[in-house]
Amino acid sequence: MRKRLQHLACGALLALMLAGAGAAEHIVIKRPVEMAPSAELTYSIKARQKGFSIAGEATVGWRAGGGKYAVRSVTKAMLFGTIIDNRSEGAIDSFGLAPVTFTEKRIRHDPYTTTFDRAAKTISFTESKETYPLLGGEQDRASVSWQLVAIARAQPEKFVAGSEWVFFVAGRRDAEPWTFRVVKKETLRTGIGQVEALHLLRLPPPDSKDQSLDIWLAPSHEWYPVRLRFTDNEEEFVDQVLEKIARK
Prior knowledge:
The protein has helices spanning 2-25, 144-154, and strands at 39-49, 52-65, 68-77, 81-93, 96-106, 112-117, 122-125, 131-133, 139-140, 164-170, 175-190, 193-202, 212-218, 224-231, 237-247. It is mainly beta.
């Protein structure tokens, strides 16, 4: 009987630990932020998808002011036209970017929307019945890069090799923590010349089929992203490099 009770106690303790670990995944971290100036960024695209090499162009329109923000990214490929069009809109609050809606439209697919309901304090999805509590600081897949930019602009001295930056990010049908790790400073060849950039890497959890993301931020150019590379488990990739910046 004593062993039985010990076994049950250990099981209960393990359950509590797992429950605590799950709850801890949705973390809220408030950090200083400084929004980047509004601009339109144009990138060249090189990709390998389904065994095919693809070239194209992406434009990212970033707007911030009056307590609001909007970011729209449109990716076009030769012969295919627009293949991805995503948008994030919302407010700017004490956490930084506070998305209200995130919408994505992919070629040959209907658009989907992720909603951050500030009144009900929930995140919901048109693609699933999942909901998550809205605690503050959550991002979507379009806003998270610009939240990272805003934090880097506010405290650049903390972006050193090995430092990690965690965000709770909503996608198409669910949400999860994203951890960006600072790798090192690198010199990149871009359409605006050679640029010193800080390389950050986001790796998905070991059991995830999600893409990894490399992002390079340029301190000498308002910390704008000058390169982004998405790589999936099959080593297919989309690599975009900055060609020009138009201030707005």
